[in-house]
Design brief:
Elements: E1 25-38, E2 41-48, E3 51-58, H1 65-71, E4 77-86, E5 101-112, H2 129-134, H3 136-139, H4 143-165, E6 169-170, E7 188-190, E8 198-200, H5 206-214, E9 219-227, E10 239-248, H6 252-269, E11 280-282, H7 283-290, E12 303-304, H8 311-316, E13 326-330, H9 338-352, E14 356-361, H10 372-384, E15 395-401, H11 412-429, E16 448-452, E17 457-460, E18 465-468, H12 478-482, H13 485-488, E19 497-502, E20 505-512, H14 517-526, H15 531-544, E21 552-558, H16 559-567, H17 597-602
Parallel strand pairs: 3-5, 6-9, 11-16
Antiparallel strand pairs: 1-2, 1-4, 2-3, 4-5, 7-8, 9-10, 10-21, 12-13, 13-15, 14-15, 16-19, 17-18, 19-20, 20-21
Length: 611
């Protein structure tokens, strides 16, 4: 028989009471985390969002509550009314904030019962993620998940407060809009009122925030839900949340200063101070030094070491002349047996084959025994300031193109990217040995970086055409426009685009936008878009550009990703209340589902043939 709550109100949370509260009469409400039956004494660990308090049901003190406590089980919802008392010195629990006290209950109300759950929210870790997602309401009771959502809340609040103080307005933009190409598939919503037409859920509020700048709002931000129908992974969900902002008359420096300001506020409110300003690096430099446009600065960069090889050495090593030779350091090398070294060499050869060669410059014994080649590479690295010092305990890997390599390996960019991927693979393999991953104190765990001057165009092998690398509303460098490179050398055109990167994770992207209609039309032409197609897709925006559009720019950062980093999580699902699986399924609600033929008929959609 369940009890009614009546007029009783909770006086305290389960994480609030301390030794100073001894003697107070309190009413606590929550879930039974654990139950221990010692006969005349029954102990209940009562849990809510704020913590756990031990409740004692003594048969003599609570003759009515004790029998109820005999029947309650984990996840029952109860109210305990009683007096706070100090625990004995020998039973204090120093691991609990409330561990010095307990509540001697005079009354126990059973407010609701519970089936035996498929897993206990008291568990530290549940291995089966599908079960966790199916019973998400139980999973969210776990302290770890509630902590993660608290981090997310603190970040969002800190960002709102900072941007508001900087004069930004938070303005909502539509969820039901038109389909525009932004690099991924749209989620489409059929219109009942206008048969055969569709809205699209926004991949971002890109055009709307630019319209707000045309409207003279000057500074806009929004913590906004966005939608992309794309293949999923640990750091990607079909619906995600952006910290989106735009401002008029900015330089890149203006955007950087604002973003660094709210990130500093967000990290500090979570107890993680960071150092600003963040370092900057061009896209070209990032590719040459790290082989990737989102470098993890906790790891040593690569360096170009072709100059240390003589022509005779290149020939004897069968290295293709005229192409980059890249050196990678693996810090803190552990001892390997000959068998392990052979297996390791085979792994790397397989990773870089068939077009690249791998040279393992083994460093054994004291510095005096280092090979001449390794010494020359080390000296070149020090000169170029690109490679960590090669100490005796480190392993040095050199990657180079083989003679007769196929076309991709003759591309400098391809070589750097291939070597960069090997660098990351090696870092993961030896992660436990990397001092770079050790906790070093405030600010040292978070290596932020601005990457700038991205290519404006990228080549699409499928269509054999140039397409935009960022989005078609990004402004190119004025000098590239003036030089006419848009038509003569599109590969050389640089965008006024920038990414914010943290520990190898892209947190966000932004750019200075095109604010002139003639330049925007020139970009559309360069992308192979006819005037008719441009009008059909972006006519409203092209028209708006004719009415005194100011220079403007902005950025969007992933709130989910920031929360994921601060929570120390490996997946966005750990910081999203109701996420989708890798197959974009909501296991709790069993979405997506089929709908009735009647609903489809209302939308003027012919029912699909169902198996």
């Amino acid at each position: 028989m369940l009890d009614f709550l009546g007029t009783r109100q909770r006086t305290n949370t389960c994480g609030e009471l301390r030794a100073a509260d001894a003697g107070k009469t309190v009413t606590l409400m929550g879930w039974v985390n654990r139950r221990r039956d010692h006969g005349n004494l029954i102990f209940l660990d009562l849990r809510d969002r704020y913590g756990i308090t031990q409740i004692v049901l003594d048969k003599e003190i609570s003759p009515e509550g004790h029998p109820k406590a005999e029947h309650v089980r984990p996840e029952y919802v109860v109210a305990a009314i009683g007096k706070v008392r100090l625990r004995g010195a020998d039973v204090i629990n120093p691991k609990m904030p409330t561990g010095e006290i307990e509540v001697a209950a005079t009354e126990l109300l059973v407010l609701n019962d519970s089936k035996v759950p498929p897993f206990s929210p008291a568990e530290d870790a549940i291995q089966n993620e599908e079960v966790r997602l199916k019973y998400r309401y139980l999973d969210l009771r776990r302290p770890e998940m509630q902590h993660n959502l608290e981090i997310r809340h603190k970040v969002a609040l800190a960002v709102r407060e900072y941007l508001s103080a900087q004069g930004f307005y938070e303005i909502e933009t539509p969820y039901l809009t038109r389909s525009t190409p932004e690099g991924a598939r749209d989620y489409l919503v059929p219109s009942r009122v206008h048969p055969g037409t569709f809205y699209a859920l926004p991949q971002s509020p890109q055009l709307f925030k630019q319209i707000l700048m045309i409207s003279g709002l000057d500074k806009y931000f929004q913590i906004v839900r966005c939608f992309r129908d794309e293949d999923l992974r640990a750091d990607r969900q079909p619906e995600f949340t952006q910290i989106d902002l735009e401002m008029t008359f900015p330089q890149q420096e203006t955007v950087f200063r604002v973003v660094e300001g709210f990130l500093k506020a967000a990290f500090e409110v979570c107890g993680e101070p960071i150092v600003t300003p963040f370092p900057r690096m061009t896209y070209d430099e990032a590719i040459r030094r790290y082989g990737i446009d989102k470098p993890d600065l906790r790891l040593p960069p690569m360096t170009e070491v072709r100059d240390v090889f003589s022509a005779e050495e290149l020939a004897s090593l069968k290295i293709e002349p005229g192409l980059p030779i890249v050196a990678i350091v693996i810090p803190n090398k552990t001892a390997m047996s000959n068998t392990q070294k052979k297996a390791f060499a085979q792994e790397i050869n397989a990773a870089v084959a068939p077009d690249l060669a791998y040279l393992d410059v083994e460093r054994l014994g004291s510095a005096a025994q280092f090979s001449a080649l390794a010494q020359r590479i080390d000296a070149a690295a020090a000169k170029n300031c690109g490679l960590a010092r090669v100490e005796p305990e480190n392993r040095l890997i050199v990657v180079s193109p083989r003679i007769g390599a196929t076309a991709p390996a003759r591309d400098h960019l391809w070589i750097y990217k291939k070597a960069g991927q090997l660098r990351l693979d090696l870092a993961r393999r030896f992660e436990g040995e990397h001092k770079a991953f050790e906790k070093k104190g405030a600010g040292d765990d978070y290596k932020f970086l601005w990457v700038t001057d991205f290519p404006f165009f990228e080549w699409d092998e499928e269509t054999k055409t140039w397409t935009f690398a960022h989005h078609p509303f990004t402004s190119p460098h004025e000098s590239d426009l003036i030089a006419g490179r848009m038509e003569s050398d599109p590969e050389a055109v640089r965008a006024l685009a920038y990414d914010i990167v943290l520990n190898g994770l892209e947190l966000g992207s932004g750019s200075i936008r095109i604010h002139r209609q003639d330049v925007q039309q020139q970009i559309f032409r360069a992308l192979g878009m006819s005037e008719e197609e441009a009008q059909a897709r972006f006519g409203f925006f092209l028209e708006a550009l004719q009415y005194g559009t100011p220079p403007h720019g902005g950025i969007a950062l992933g709130l989910d990703r920031i929360a994921m980093v601060l929570a120390g999580a490996s997946s966005l699902r750990e910081v999203t209340a109701f996420p989708k699986t890798a197959k974009a399924i909501d296991l709790m609600t069993d979405a997506p589902t089929e709908v009735s033929d009647a609903q489809l008929k209302e939308l003027h959609i012919r029912p699909a043939v169902r198996s």
